[in-house]
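Lab notebook, bench 4. Still working through the backlog of constructs that have no structural model yet. Next entry is a single chain of 130 residues. Request: give me the structure tokens for it.
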Amino acid sequence: MDRPYLNKNGFTFMEMLIVLLIVSLLNFGLYTKMNTSLYVFMKQVQTLCITAQEKAYVENRKVSIDINEKMVVDEKNYFMPKDVACDSVSFYYNAKGNISKAFTLYCQNSHTKMKLVFQLGSGRIRLEKV
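Model written out:
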């Protein structure tokens, strides 16, 4: 019995899937390493702002936040990483926990740019990649 001729010059479907999986995993690992410092810093800013909002509400007083070369939350200093640059902004949370203005804070490092969107009313802070 004659078998049909199988072409042995190419790759099988499974071999191609395995190579694509390996390349994707390596790419994902490198991509997350490059953006780690900015992402961690932006999550820290987001957490500090939410904490300041809760503090203003619980203690029934105004809590101010200033962001420029360093971040000052209720007269306590937080330093920014050297590779991260942010826009300067100043705002506060009133005694009811409402933010003084709506705005977008842009920060970047050498690899990427991210933004924090501060919304009026709901008091939400949304982190996005630009």
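Notes after review: The beta strands are 63-67, 70-73, 76-79, 85-86, 89-93, 103-108, 113-118, 125-129. The two ends are 63 Å apart (CA to CA). Flag for follow-up if needed.
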